[in-house]
Structure prediction request, 167 residues.
Amino acid sequence: MDAKADEPWPDRVAHTFDYRSWHEWDIFVTHSSFGDGSSNEAFRKVGTRSNPLETLSTGERRLATMLPLLAAAWSMYSGDYRGPRLLSIDEIDAAFDEPNLRQVLALLRSWDFDVLATTPSITPMIKREAGRAMVHQVVASGRNRITIPWLWEGHGEPRPVTLDGMA
Prediction:
């Protein structure tokens, strides 16, 4: 659907960049609990009236909703694209148990994403799985906030980044 010429400029821009009008897809999920008792798992469509995700744990729901978004980002960055493959993920470890978080981190690495993620703390498991990470610690004093960049090389403790860019 094209933006109308008589629409106000902000509405035209919003319409033009509304990614929901670019593609249309259906999401189906499967889970061992959806099957008939045998090893055959059934796929169920996620819709407004019937949402099979409601029967899953919080972590399973987050994984089921995150994976299609990651696949869409991977698809966008595939092909002739040359440049950063940037993703921003708020609280990357929220609701995931360790095996699911490990799978998500492995997927992000295998698809070569550059990830900007927030997390309340860097758990030992995230340290093991992330490899090399730039960490920004937010320091607050009253209404003032600054970030202190640290570089973590995959072992030991993070080191502060100096002005010359070397840790």
